[in-house]
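pasting for ref
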Amino acid sequence: MKEKDNRPVYLNILTINLPIIGISSFLHRVSGFVLFSTYLVLVWMLNRSLTSEEEFVQLLSDLRNNFSLKILIFLISITIFYHSLIGIKKLITDFFGVGEQLKSGSIISWIYNVMFVLISITTLIFIFC
């Protein structure tokens, strides 16, 4: 006789209690996908800036005056910063074994997330002021 299947049928991600290490890992993957998705926007800006001197000046003017472009640049910047910071944390963990335990890994994840918040605030002030 076949045993009853006890696997969950529906998993609600919002009810799963992940440690900060898991949340950081998940957000690292999301930021990587967002970076991949914004690649075409960055290539378009590079193409526009390299077309001619007038296009470059116009792009700079758009970046200074267009609020939606400022928001886009800010979001791309913080995505790059988050992906880089957590990527460095993962490399340090993989190569040197720092933060492999749950407690030390949680502390390091909190440190890197606080660093990300501080860098994001600095970027926000730099772009919008």
